[in-house]
Amino acid sequence: xxxxxxxxxxxxxxxxxxxxxxxxxxxxxxxxxxxxxxxxxxxxxxxxxxxxxxxxxxxxxxxxxxxxxxxxxxxxxxxxxxxxxxxxxxxxxxxxxxxxxxxxxxxxxxxxxxxxxxxxxxxxxxxxxxxxxxxxxxxxxxxxxxxxxxxxxxxxxxxxxxxxxxxxxxxxxxxxxxxxxxxxxxxxxxxxxxxxxxxxxxxxxxxxxxxxxxxxxxxxxxxxxxxxxxxxxxxxxxxxxxxxxxxxxxxxxxxxxxxxxxxxxxxxxxxxxxxxxxxxxxxxxxxxxxxxxxxxxxxxxxxxxxxx
Length: 308
Prior knowledge:
Layout lengths: L1 E3 L10 E6 L7 H12 L5 E9 L2 H5 L11 H11 L3 E6 L2 H4 L3 H10 L4 E7 L12 H11 L2 E5 L1 H7 L3 H9 L3 H8 L4 E7 L4 H4 L5 E4 L11 E9 L2 E10 L10 E6 L10 E11 L7 H20 L2
Parallel strand pairs: 1-4, 2-3, 2-5, 3-4, 5-6
Antiparallel strand pairs: 7-8, 7-12, 8-11, 9-10, 9-12, 10-11
Helix pairs in contact: 8-9
């Protein structure tokens, strides 16, 4: 997949079949559109996804606190796995938001992307103040000579999923629902940093995951069953998200204990897939009681893993 970090950087020799949107989560609803895009490739046209960063809501509504389901790198990997040929990640700002529908279609879709067809959802709106809709786009297509294909409301409703529903499920610890809507296990990506290493003293050494992107949604505090690919091998484990109240941790931490794995991970980037939510974070009266609970958690996690 070719990646461009601005509309102005994009170059191609073939006409494009494209779609556009934020695609936060790249969930099963998005895939209705994205997989349709790739199925139309026949060597004559190239697939193109136009997405934006920062998220438009961060810019237009001042919602800097919005949490996203994917980091940019995670989204890139997900789109590449679907088979998209070209990805344009355009910096979204107020100046870009002021483009009229006419300007957007002519200068970007037609002149820059050499559009053959655009595939969009039934409720897509675009242009300054999002005033243009599917009917306007069809008229532009007739004028400039490109096709417009609309994913029907029925097709979208058959999936019945949204990024908002997934965020809600994650904050409730409902991993089964979140992962069903995503079509894959929710992931956290970060760098392993040195922690207090208290886990080693009770037989549960942990990797302290530091997530760099402050916009990434961290699910509900508690203990999870997880999986990672490390050095091309898969390892299961359990992860705690929370404040370590038993040992007066203070700051939010994300700590992963891998089963049957003992190697130095410091400064490595690790991707953790969240499979199941086991329990909320608890404060225990002693480290000994914490260790007893961790043993129970491990037993429950292994039973779940063996059932996969």
